[in-house]
Amino acid sequence: MKVRAFAKINLCLDVLRRKDNGYHEVEMVMTNVDIFDVLEIKELEEKKILLKSYNTDLAMDETNLIYKAIVLLQNETGKDFGVEVLLEKNIPMEAGMAGGSADAAATLKAVNELFKLGVSDERLLELGASLGADIPFCIMGGTVLASGIGEKLRRLSPLPKMKLLIVKPKAGLSTKTVYESLDIEGLNKAGFKHKDVSEMVSVIESDEADKTKIEKIAKRLDNILEVPSIKLLPLIADIKQKMIDNNCLGALMSGSGTAIFGIYENDEDIIKTKEIFEKDDRINYIQITNTL
Fold first, then answer.
1. How confident is the model at residue 24 (pLDDT cuts 50, 70, 90)?
2. Is 129 marked as a binding-site residue?
3. Do 180 and 135 belong to one domain?
4. Which of 104, 130, 180, 242 reaches 20 to 30 Å from 115, CA-CA?
């Protein structure tokens, strides 16, 4: 069985507070883009989990979320089965585009189907949430408002197709480092003005023409995690500014970074900007894509 695991971007992301258990309470709007990993999953006669990839940067062992997802299903169903997963990795790592989460989500759905485990969609979402905050969204897909720690999901209207340029610096930032560097209590005490995520939701749910809707979405892009990420890696701000200087409608870092996406109106501007970044040796990933 071959399945695709689609990347995501955040159109907005707000962190409201840090919970006593260390998790952060968030509000965010996420949507899929047409960049995907491919997982080839097949049954093994021997009762073992075997992960393979041509990408040598990946740890293909029990620390991988794909492996953890399979073990979770075995424990959930009480069934012991052998499975091999060959991963073709296309989503950039440490990008804030949910690469690992997308792979885990695709694994949960595919293994459940392949081995006829009978785990309900609702239970798959719960299992996914126990592995990672972005996994329930990756199981659901589409355009979604997520709250809580990311596990409370509300499906939104489909987006008009948007042209995107995605640029990622060579330097990566771990989600853990970014969240640990976010002093949300300090920001709140200092009167930090949180952007209203409901404004983005209202635009997405409106009946306006696609062109108007895209322009309004671009104006409302916001990610509070840019505050610590730009301090850790100022190049993020430079990339955003370069996109804006070259006629993008709006630019934003996705998730905890370090990928930045720009929304463009026409092919000429997006190609010109891509060529500018191709000359910058601090960048290791440049891709033109669309929202799904």
1. confident
2. no
3. no
4. 130
